[in-house]
Amino acid sequence: MDPELIIETRNLSYRFGNQLVIDQVSLNVREGSIYGFLGPNGAGKTTTIKVLLNLLQTGEEKVFLFGKDLHKNRLEILSGIGSLIEQPAIYSHLSGKENLLNRALLLRVPRARIHEMLDLVNLTEHADKKAGKYSLGMKQRLGIALALLHDPKLLILDEPTNGLDPNGIIEIRQLIRKLVEERGKTVFISSHLLSEVEKMVTHIGIINRGKLLFQGTIEELHSLSEKQLEIQTDDLINSKELLCRKGYRAEILSDTILIPYLSEDQCAEINSLLVKNDYKVYSLTVSKQNLENLFLSITKL
User: How far is it, in rounded angstroms, from Cα 227 to Cα 246?
Assistant: First the structure.
């Protein structure tokens, strides 16, 4: 067993009746990482998280956290996890500070942690305000503070930016980075939008219909993005037909000819070919497939 793995599942499957919701999923989440667990709505993300938190039970030797079998070490493992699933469990009639105090008394956590958490999530100025009057972003930050109160090693967040405005998303993103970089936490975060999490995660797992379709670093996901040569000329249709006759896999999208990129020499050859045939080349650039489109193409598999 790899000692650096904070979360490990081994061919994990789960059924609701006859419906297979998780299908042979093997997660590998390393210590100190921000792992983005991505997939469309209904892909199996929340079910997987509930299994990791033992809210749904599976057999032995399927789920390991901190290197230990969840089935055999449930209480010890769960004491090292903080979580925010769907909506934060907040008492609206209590202030932010009172919500944290209530949780601190239940967990027997020193009261000094309350002020530390309020400061961490930038709610000190709003500590005495009723939580029911908080904005959605403030409620999410309070929920994260509640999850961190007992100083867990692992933080599991299910769609924490869902419904937030751009400022709220940025605040959550900055907070998560801070937790990893300054507090040494490991964060496992689910989302159905790649664009929301790609700016903060170090690793990504993509799930759809219960199957894990991709797992690796954000750089490895980028490497799957096919490079394309984008060409603009004064006569797109005839330029494209010339390139096709010469064996290039060319197509027109909007006002651009697209060709799979192979090398710099290929770029020079295409440019020379077009110019020799009296076509004006306005631009010739290399680009990568948009990650959002790549995510969509993976989840359609």
Answer: 20
19 forms bridges with which residues in the sheet? 16
How far apart (Å, rounded) are the C-alpha atoms in residues 301 and 240? 30
The model carries a pTM of: 0.81
Nearest CA-CA partner of 187 in 198, 199, 202: 202
Are the C-beta atoms of 7 and 27 separated by less than 8 Å? Answer: yes
In the chain, the N- to C-terminal Cα span, in Å, equals: 31
- In the three-class reduction of DSSP (H, G, I as helix; E, B as strand; rest coil), residue 124 is classed as helix
Token pair in block for residue 19: 């419906």
Q: Tens digits of per-residue pLDDT, 96-105?
A: 999 999 999 9
Return d(Cα 301, Cα 297) in angstroms, integer: 7
Q: In what order do the strands lie in the sheet with 5-9?
A: 28-30, 5-9, 63-65, 68-69
Q: How far apart are CA 89 and CA 111, in angstroms?
A: 19
Closest CA to 160 of 181, 141, 174, 145: 141
- pLDDT tens readout for residues 1-32: 566 899 999 999 999 989 999 999 999 999 99
Render 194-260 in DSSP notation, one character per residue: HHHHTTT-SEEEEEETTEEEEEEEHHHHHHTS-EEEEEEES-HHHHHHHHHHTT---EEETTEEEEE
Beta strands 68-69; 12-16: pairing state: unpaired
